[in-house]
Amino acid sequence: MPRGQGKTIAQNKKARHDFAIEETFEAGIVLQGTEIKSIRNGRINLKDSFARVVNGEVFLHNMHISPYEQGNIYNHDPTRARKLLLHKKEINQLIGQTQQKGYSLVPLKVYIKNGVAKVLIGVGRGKKKYDKREDLKRKQQKREIDRAIKESLQ
């Protein structure tokens, strides 16, 4: 199955609006206890989450996974830092890219692939206000063109 494919559980739509994503990486997540059950139920939020490289390991911060209802004592802290599983070569590549000024690691989506939870993280540069406006204009123009083509075909 190609990278980024699988049953999508959560998407960070704001990430593509706020960042110009240049490259993406697929990573596994180290989960504890009943976290996978909460993820399968769709009780996950990627808003305001980010990834950071610490001591040669990649960690995902501020990703909120709600506690599982039937989990009792096996539940977890909802916003704890979670380790991402990447190859050493990919981590070294991420270190090089994020040390450049303006680049960040942003989780784009969480999905289940072959029964395992995966995160698609992107290396992106923060967009300025005028870049966001240009993107909105392009999107609106494309919508108008598509609408005009659809009307002319009918």
TrEMBL record:
CDD domains: SmpB. GO terms for molecular function: RNA binding. GO terms for cellular component: cytosol. InterPro entries: SmpB (IPR023620), SsrA-bd_prot (IPR000037), SsrA-bd_prot_CS (IPR020081). Residues 131-154 are annotated as: Disordered. Keywords: Cytoplasm, RNA-binding. The keyword Cytoplasm applies. One of its GO terms (biological process) is trans-translation-dependent protein tagging. Signal peptide: none annotated. It is found in: Cytoplasm. It comes from the Bacteria. Belongs to the SmpB family. Required for rescue of stalled ribosomes mediated by trans-translation. Binds to transfer-messenger RNA (tmRNA), required for stable association of tmRNA with ribosomes. tmRNA and SmpB together mimic tRNA shape, replacing the anticodon stem-loop with SmpB. tmRNA is encoded by the ssrA gene; the 2 termini fold to resemble tRNA(Ala) and it encodes a 'tag peptide', a short internal open reading frame. During trans-translation Ala-aminoacylated tmRNA acts like a tRNA, entering the A-site of stalled ribosomes, displacing the stalled mRNA. This is SsrA-binding protein.
